Amino acid sequence: MAVSLPLVFDPPRRAMPPRHIADLDDDARTAAVAELGLPAFRGKQLANQYYGRLIADPHQMTDLPAALRDQISDALFPKLLDAVREIECDSGETRKMLWRAVDGSTFESVLMRYPQRNTVCISSQAGCGMACPFCATGQGGLQRNLSTAEILEQVRAAAVELRDRDGEGIAPPARGGRLSNIVFMGMGEPLANYNRVVAAVRRITAAPPFGFGISARSVTVSTVGLAPAIRKLADERLGVTLALSLHAPDDELRDTLVPVNSRWKLSEALDAARYYADVTGRRVSIEYALIRDVNDQPWRADLLGKRLHGALGPLAHVNVIPLNPTPGSEWDASPKTVEREFVKRVRERGVSCTVRDTRGREIAAACGQLAAEG
């Protein structure tokens, strides 16, 4: 099977959105406030409004002098995203948002409520250049990287949605309407937008008033296997969970299902994952979309278990994901009997393995379905 779409690591040249306070680290925020001729304490005050109180409009910041609000709004709080469409399923427990940026780029995020946690799945790019043929996002191609602020605005919007619905904000553990978990599993390859994603993670996990205060252990960064970037992320010592999208235990099939495998082979991706586990002490999540008659054979389950046991041992956990349908795709999810046998065989090799609870299929909000149409 030939790979029909090229990998895109460098997105098309498109203007990034205007500077936003969420793009700035502590030093840059202090400098930006000084440029406006304001005292240094205003920087902390603005950060607290954004990250602590979830307010992105200075005109609603009652602790700011009214005379300063227009100036601060223009300089540090430009409107970045418009909500184009919102649809829900699971009795309102799963909600997908289509966003449009100032340049017309579109992308999606998904908010999922569970009994013990509330999770938002966010995008790091508009589109994706990794070209995985079973993924709607990958088939649509890459528009551009998202800015740090565009990433963080998805988090803030989810927290506001939960707060306004249930009367609480960001503060894990999840009770009522608190946002507790962030997964970089929306549109795009997070490690292909490395600097902005890492900056976003730092602000997601920083303690208030300089971040949302989400535990690093509750943040997951997914990748299709950009081995050098995985090692670099390990050295950041951020402590987030790494999710490696494997989808095949052999290079021949993975070259087709995950075209980045033509650059960094399976052994290189697993070596990088082991390095991540060793440096961080965190177990690596292995994502495996189970596709009928493609990657669900018993011998592939045996090989997957064998390779993961050798490469990661107890530091690997396999999430089997029943393939989610996408428009025009000839591929389908494996039958439940095949799925159960696959899981059993992986476990028999000494590797933890479970089937992921899939949310949002009927509104194209599940893994591999995000396409930002409309």
UniProtKB/TrEMBL annotation:
Cofactor annotation remark: Binds 1 [4Fe-4S] cluster. The cluster is coordinated with 3 cysteines and an exchangeable S-adenosyl-L-methionine.
Catalytic activity: adenosine(2503) in 23S rRNA + 2 reduced [2Fe-2S]-[ferredoxin] + 2 S-adenosyl-L-methionine = 2-methyladenosine(2503) in 23S rRNA + 5'-deoxyadenosine + L-methionine + 2 oxidized [2Fe-2S]-[ferredoxin] + S-adenosyl-L-homocysteine; adenosine(37) in tRNA + 2 reduced [2Fe-2S]-[ferredoxin] + 2 S-adenosyl-L-methionine = 2-methyladenosine(37) in tRNA + 5'-deoxyadenosine + L-methionine + 2 oxidized [2Fe-2S]-[ferredoxin] + S-adenosyl-L-homocysteine
Binding site for [4Fe-4S] cluster: C128, C132, C135
GO MF entry, a single one: metal ion binding
Cross-referenced InterPro entries: Aldolase_TIM, Methyltransferase_A, RNA_MTrfase_RlmN, rRNA_lsu_MTrfase_RlmN/Cfr, rSAM, rSAM_sf
Keywords: 4Fe-4S, Cytoplasm, Disulfide bond, Iron, Iron-sulfur, Metal-binding, Methyltransferase, rRNA processing, S-adenosyl-L-methionine, Transferase, tRNA processing
GO CC aspect terms: cytoplasm
Group of enzyme by EC: transferase
Subcellular location: Cytoplasm
Domain Radical SAM core: 114-361
Active site positions, chain numbering: E108, C367
Superkingdom of the organism of origin: Bacteria
Cofactor(s) essential for the protein: [4Fe-4S] cluster
Amino-acid positions noted as binding S-adenosyl-L-methionine in the UniProt annotation, renumbered to this chain: G188, E189, S222, S245, L246, H247, N324
GO biological process: rRNA base methylation; tRNA methylation
Listed EC numbers: 2.1.1.192
Note: Reaction proceeds by a ping-pong mechanism involving intermediate methylation of a conserved cysteine residue.
Family that this chain belongs to: Belongs to the radical SAM superfamily. RlmN family.
Record protein name field: Probable dual-specificity RNA methyltransferase RlmN
